Design the sequence.
């Protein structure tokens, strides 16, 4: 009787969630608090990074930058690196890329969202609500852009 080759069992667990780095700047204070009305433009920048550690552990870092500007003057700037250590086993190739590019940032986002809102409020500004982010869509978009870039690079040679 031939032995059947079994696929490795898939495992995914959160080992640790932590703040890797954070900063808050309010370069216009205290003058900004004298205004009775303000309507800033808010810019959001989002990225994630993956670093394999020993065994089946991986560090995922979600970096979120929020900048509020009015009349080309920065009212506040927040940058946060929310990180996590994940045990990931049994995933290969495209599946692993989807786990670290979409699933893990989805786990980290609520922690980052709360930290950013807290820093902005403690900085003296009104409540700031960071809207939900569809990391699945962002992952697919980045993958498509990479494929288009690879295709364009292949045609250039």
Sequence:
């Amino acid at each position: 009787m031939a032995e059947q080759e079994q696929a490795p069992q898939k495992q995914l667990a959160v080992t640790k969630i932590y703040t890797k780095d954070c900063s808050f700047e309010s370069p216009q204070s205290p003058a900004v608090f004298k205004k009775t009305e303000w309507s800033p433009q808010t810019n959001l920048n989002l990225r994630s990074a993956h670093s394999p550690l020993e065994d089946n552990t991986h560090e995922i870092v979600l970096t979120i930058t929020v900048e509020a500007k009015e009349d080309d003057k920065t009212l506040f700037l927040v940058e946060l690196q929310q990180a996590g250590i994940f045990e990931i086993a049994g995933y290969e190739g495209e599946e692993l890329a989807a786990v670290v590019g979409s699933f893990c940032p989805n786990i980290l986002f609520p922690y980052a969202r709360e930290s950013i809102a807290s820093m902005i409020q403690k900085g003296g500004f009104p409540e700031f609500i960071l809207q939900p982010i569809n990391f699945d869509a962002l992952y697919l978009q980045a993958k498509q852009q990479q494929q288009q870039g690879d295709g364009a690079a292949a045609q250039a040679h």
In short: The chain has one domain: 11-156. The radius of gyration is 20 Å. The CA atoms of residues 144 and 150 lie 10 Å apart.
